[in-house]
Design goal:
The chain is mainly alpha-helical. The protein has three domains: 53 residues; 78 residues, no CATH class; 26 residues, no CATH class. It is built from eight helices and no strands. The N and C termini lie far apart (141 Å).
């Protein structure tokens, strides 16, 4: 706003009145101007930051970068699958070893060799299928398992002519009376 424009609008206004109107106008414009300058400076800073960030990407092949991202994603998926397989194998081996231990097997390696491990791993109901497979091996190869039957016909020692332990003199004399051919000196 110019002084001439104000004097045309307010005919007969004094210089003081015109100065007051111009001062008020300048204050309003100054506030708006300052606000706009701050916004402009912020936009300049943002533009400069964005341009610097774009400069970092100069010379980078986007397709190569996308290929690397795809490769890393694929590697990550493979590692996760490998981890899940190892975890599944550990769980299977734990169930298998527990079933073998409770079955009374004398040699777990020999028993594992007779089991179809791959079929048991693929089973939906692992623990029951493992027990069934162990029972099948037990019925065919019972010598691999500890027997739960009591001994039917134990055999005792047959040679009583020279007992292994040393006797007291009174025991040796009693033995000599029962076995006259025994030498008392070897019994004591």
């Amino acid at each position: 706003m110019k002084r001439e424009d104000v004097s045309k609008i307010f005919e007969g206004a004094t210089d003081e009145q015109i100065n007051a109107i111009l001062d008020l106008n300048s204050a309003d414009i100054g506030k708006a101007k300052h606000k706009l300058e701050v916004e402009r400076d912020n936009y300049k800073d943002s533009l400069e930051i964005a341009q610097n960030a774009l400069k970092e990407f100069e010379g980078i092949d986007v397709k190569d970068l996308q290929g690397k991202v795809a490769q890393l994603t694929n590697d990550l998926a493979q590692k996760e699958t490998e981890y899940k397989d190892k975890l599944s194998d550990m769980e299977f081996n734990s169930v298998l070893d527990s079933a073998i231990a409770s079955s009374g097997a004398r040699n777990s390696k020999a028993l594992k060799a007779l089991l179809d491990i791959n079929a048991l791993k693929a089973s939906k109901n692992r623990s029951e299928d493992i027990k069934t497979a162990i029972e099948a091996v037990k019925s065919e190869n019972d010598y691999l398992f500890v027997s739960k039957e009591p001994i039917q016909n134990p055999v005792g020692a047959t040679d009583t002519s020279a007992p292994n332990k040393k006797m007291t003199l009174s025991e040796a004399m009693a033995y000599k009376n029962a076995h006259p051919e025994a030498d008392v000196n070897t019994l004591i």
